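>> received
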Amino acid sequence: MVFQSVLSYVLNKYLGEFVENLDENQLNVGIWGGDVELKDLVLKPAALAELDLPIQSVYGKIGKLVLKIPWKSLYTSSTVITVEDIYLVVQPNQQVRYDPVKEEQRLYDYKVKEIQRVEETKRAEDEKLAGKAPAKAGWTQEFAEKLVATIIKNIQLSIKHIHIRYEDKVTNPKFPFSFGVTLDQLIVESTDANWKKTIADDIIKIYKILHLENLAIYLNCKSSLYGDLPVTQMLSKLELGIASKEHNPDGFKYILGPINSSARLIMNQKPEIDQPPYTIPKFHFNLQMETLYIGMNKSQYRDIIALVDSMGRMTKGIPYRKYRPNLTEYKGHYRDWWKFAITAVLEQDVKRKRREWNWDNILDYRKKCRTYKELYSLSNQKKALKPEDAEKLKSCEKGLDLTNLIIIRQQVQAQAMKEAKEKGKQSWWDWAWGSKSNSSKDGSKGDIIDQFKKEMTPEEKQNMYKAIGYQENAAPAEYPEEFVDITATFLLKALQLELSDVDLTEKSVTVLKVDLNTVRCKLETRAAASAMKIADVAQSRLTDFKEMSSLGLQYAVEKRPLVDLNVDLQAPILLMPHTGKYTGNENILLVNLGRVKVFSYGRRFVYHIII
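>> returned
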């Protein structure tokens, strides 16, 4: 039952943060039954608050979320995850009509997340000082690798129809533009050695294949705005805006893609039983991409530069947003804009300072601090608060600033530690951090692992170890220095770069176009030789060399890690026709940029050069 408990905890926490009106009881019933199907999930307006940008969600939706988990044969059968129809429309804060209730809730959610982040950081530091960090590691890296491999082996993932769109009529009111990301589908499946779809039952070698279809980024200048439409029309427009094999949206100007690619992954769980041993890598990843198109015209470049500048101005204007008129032009509305300027200065500078230094306001603020300290202390002692007290606690959190909230909570936790230590009934650590307040929920990686361990029975533990092929207290595997444990290859069949302009008739005119065919890349790493860690330690070693003796320096040179580099670059040939267009009958200027080869010498030759 451990996996059901942990999955229920994770889904309730993270879905609850982003989805409105989530029925936790229905979700829990589905999880325990192994069949979760959620439809038409509406995203919260504050779903993008963590980005810390002056934007907000106008409407967001997840059409379908399906989890099919075979609990009775978890380690041998496939777990199917299906996500479909993710649509999101985002606009600048200034473009959305100000709503005091929603804004208050958004600020409250932001406070809660910041408090959680600060307390998680402090808790991690306290655990480290208290010596609890080593105990948390618990399971070895080998166990983690085998568990991840088992999860990858059994998971089947399907993501279809994603359209995330940013619309802006604030940056340039006369010419609104839209920027978006679309995806037709992403499929991850298990296969056999011949790359035919099947249910993976081999624990030695795992074969996975990934299909990516029509991933694209667009930037439409002089665009219509979907956020002003009714929800049904908005969703219809978003759906039609996704490029696919059968459909190419009209009026969309892509700056990246659409991209179609496939990837293959081979995981070798036991390289020691290869014939001969250690000849097949533990991980081999192969990525093939048909065409990568990157292009931009003058109008798109202009809008991107204007957006970057506008984001800075909108961020500075967030405190004054409540006073800002819902207008897009200055002409004919001078009285409204002058009123906004005067009100903003009076409310944020003059009246705010007077209010903060008013004696009655100081007493009221101090009273809120004391009330919050009492209620949070009760909550921290695992005592259930009355509904009116819980509401009062939330009201205090809304009225107090973030700094004072954090200070008060730390005072309560410090006092709890002191009292628990004096009583000696339990460790001060468990007392102070044993409970969470109603206002912030903990979801750190460490706590999920702790809950996982706590819920797991010895029988479940042994079954899991057997299923993933792990032996507790076994000696860690040692690989030969020459063993290549990870290989990755990349093949790009065509790369297209294009810069264009727009003439007086609004027709696109190509200024520069570059085509590059068949780009290949290969990467190999050897974990035993730490071949990929040279860059990380080079700077620290350089400092140490300054203090070495000549003998120590010679030893370091002999034992230093080397990079075996072999690059052969076939440079392009440039053709510049006399008329600007090549037909085969005009004079041309031909430029051959030659060939570039970079390769490494052996250890002995480099050693003599250094000496």
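>> The longest helix spans residues 100-130.
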